[in-house]
Write a structure and sequence with these properties.
Elements: H1 61-74, E1 75-77, H2 86-90, E2 96-100, H3 106-114, E3 119-124, H4 127-140, E4 145-149, H5 152-159, E5 165-171, H6 189-198, E6 199-209, H7 212-224, E7 228-230, H8 248-255, E8 261-267, H9 270-277
Parallel strand pairs: 1-4, 2-3, 2-5, 3-4, 5-6
Antiparallel strand pairs: 6-8, 7-8
Helix pairs in contact: 1-4, 3-4
Length: 278
């Protein structure tokens, strides 16, 4: 069943002439039968505090078309039911970078186009953004992007092999600014331990945020974690690297006087961790 906009040939009692009619869906029927599921992991895993909150917004016709056409080939649900063979998944042996939270996907598509020798495993829960990234990848002829739907923690823990990632990007995650919500922030010691186990030695974890208190927390917990070392000799924030595009969201923040901070930490090999503890 297609979710694209169709114009009914028969008259409709409440239809305004010239306005397309969307086909009605039965209660409980998924909007995109072959597309991303609303809750792919369901109740198969323990309940815990999540760092993300799904947003509901309108899916455009172009995004819907991309989801219908491209999801079966380039998208996947994070259900925790299988271990991904990344070489088979992408069809080559190129290094794979996981991007958690890509928004509408413009920056992801630009980075993928600029570096075709790097595969990007892009994860989000925002359906319009998933459709938009698929649409951009299709228009640009990108073959190095796959789109994941669901909880990145389940992906890391259940579906990726140890040492399988060549990098990890977390750009502008929800800062959860209220103190009582700080426990929801993604960049925490427990998350870093899980991420370190899936990153190959030397792989870079790159975070960026325009919320300064969160940036300070990121720097603090990464500096304290034995699995990572700062790429900056001075131990501080890094300038925005050329490969990270300036997004519209970021530009709007800069216009409002927000300070954007990047942190780039390298995965420390196990033998170096052992030497540091000795």
């Amino acid at each position: 069943m297609s979710d694209s906009v169709n114009v009914s040939e028969a008259p409709h009692p409440t239809h305004t002439p010239g306005v397309p009619i969307r086909p009605a869906r039965a209660k409980g029927e998924p909007r995109f039968p072959d597309g991303p599921k609303a809750d792919p992991a369901g109740s198969h895993f323990e309940r815990r505090i999540r760092s993300f909150q799904p947003r509901r917004s309108r899916v455009t016709a172009g995004q819907a078309d991309a989801l219908q056409r491209l999801w079966p080939a380039w998208g996947f649900d994070i259900d925790g039911s299988r271990r991904l063979d990344l070489a088979e998944f992408f069809g080559d042996e190129h290094p794979v970078v996981l991007e958690i939270g890509f928004g509408m996907g413009e920056a992801t598509a630009r980075m993928a186009a600029a570096d075709p020798a790097t595969n990007i495993l892009a994860v989000d829960v925002h359906t319009p953004g998933q459709g938009n990234l698929l649409n951009l990848a299709d228009r640009l002829g990108l073959t190095n992007v796959r789109v994941g739907n669901g909880d990145a923690i389940i992906l890391l823990r259940e579906m990726l092999a140890p040492g399988s990632l060549g990098g990890l990007r977390v750009y502008f995650p929800d800062p959860w600014p209220k103190k009582r919500h700080h426990k929801r922030r993604l960049i925490q010691p427990e998350f870093l331990t899980l991420a370190a186990s899936r990153l190959a030695p030397g792989a870079v974890l790159h975070c960026a945020t325009d919320w300064e208190p969160y940036a300070e927390q990121m720097l603090q917990v990464l500096t304290a974690h034995p699995g990572f070392e700062n790429t900056r000799p001075d131990g501080g924030f890094a300038p925005r690297p050329a490969f990270r595009p300036l997004t519209r969201f970021e530009a709007q923040g800069l216009e409002k006087g927000h300070v954007v901070n990047d942190v780039l930490f390298r995965r420390v090999p196990q033998d170096e961790q052992a030497a540091d503890r000795a």
